[in-house]
Design goal:
By secondary structure, this protein is of the alpha+beta class. The protein is built from 5 helices and 6 strands. A two-stranded parallel ribbon has the order 1-4. A hairpin with a 2-residue loop joins strand 2 and strand 3. This is HNH endonuclease.
Length: 207
């Protein structure tokens, strides 16, 4: 099943705790930002269903210095609102792990990946592309909202057939570490990754 077209980006009413709506005057990096709220997803489910995807060919990659970025109309990002600035130690920064308990199974994401590849018009070896969360689970992203998942092509210079090689992953890990250390507020990390993952670290003064 696909949507009739790429839906408009509705960045509606996320809770302030989840998306950091409003302006902050002091604190960790990103605390002075004001922004529109990021969309809110349904959050973790006991049983995940294959999500509808934008119509085939309706989404378009952007590239910055050769690195792929998603289409903000098709993949604007979505958060899990129960993860907030107030509770990282009991959620994303929890010892013993957080993401493994909420990640959809490959039987679901494998089907979604094929549909999303058609949305973006991506052809070729799917093993070299990653069906990736725009806002990673370790940053409070929604596990299976179609707005938060996209088929990310291989990075520049990637050897065909060598498997996934995704420079976005270490960016997500560095942001997660900074949030857990209190160096960056959660909402700022989410906003930076949604805006442009290739500049997220420099935007927040992390590299």
């Amino acid at each position: 099943m696909v949507l009739a077209g790429c839906p408009p980006t509705s960045l509606g009413n996320s809770s302030a705790g989840a998306s950091g709506g409003g302006t902050h005057s002091a604190g960790p990096s990103g605390a002075g930002w004001a922004w529109r709220a990021i969309a809110v997803g349904a959050g973790p489910q006991r049983t995940y269903a294959v999500q509808q995807q934008p119509a085939a060919g309706s989404c378009h990659y952007r590239y910055l210095r050769g690195e792929p970025l998603g289409d903000p109309k098709c993949t604007p990002g979505a958060v899990f609102p129960a993860v907030t600035q107030a509770n990282p130690k009991s959620t994303i920064c929890r010892r013993g792990g957080y993401t493994s308990g909420i990640r959809p199974s490959t039987s679901v994401t494998g089907r979604e990946k094929k549909l999303n590849a058609a949305s973006y018009g991506l052809t070729g070896r799917m093993g070299d592309a990653e069906y990736d969360h725009l806002i990673s689970l370790q940053l409070g992203g929604d596990p299976n909202d179609y707005r938060n998942l996209w088929v990310e092509p291989a990075d520049p210079g990637h050897k065909k057939g060598a498997g996934v090689n995704n420079a976005q992953d270490p960016v997500e890990t560095k942001l997660h570490t900074a949030v857990c250390k209190g160096q960056v507020i959660l909402a700022a990390a989410q906003k930076a990754i949604v805006t442009d993952w290739t500049t997220a670290l420099s935007r927040l003064g992390l590299g």
